[in-house]
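Design a sequence for this backbone.
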């Protein structure tokens, strides 16, 4: 098993490499796809008025994407056995979302500092 300082045990053999592959894929998705979408959404959210419905935070396209991702996740869980491939996919998606969330946190910090 590979011990990474402060991060616990990852595993041995191919599992170790799949974590690295997932992080690389997630980083690529974050930088190439999600960052652009996050910035656009943040700009849209900042332009909303105070009396706006909470559902208006996301565009209808984003709500559709959320529904499709949920359906895809449910289908994948029913059609596949838990294992390294689906685990790699989950890590890649989770890392991409986590990494791109930095834009939202940055916008929030800027908003807090201006008040």
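Sequence:
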């Amino acid at each position: 098993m590979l011990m990474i300082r402060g991060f616990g045990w990852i595993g041995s053999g191919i599992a170790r490499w799949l974590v690295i592959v997932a992080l690389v894929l997630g980083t690529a998705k974050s930088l190439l796809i999600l960052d652009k979408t996050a910035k656009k959404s943040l700009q849209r959210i900042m332009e909303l008025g105070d009396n706006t419905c909470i559902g208006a935070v996301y565009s209808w396209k984003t709500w559709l994407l959320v529904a499709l991702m949920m359906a895809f996740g449910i289908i994948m869980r029913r059609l596949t056995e838990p294992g390294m491939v689906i685990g790699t996919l989950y890590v890649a998606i989770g890392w991409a979302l986590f990494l791109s969330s930095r834009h939202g946190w940055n916008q929030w910090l800027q908003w807090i500092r201006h008040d």
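The chain has a mean pLDDT of 84.
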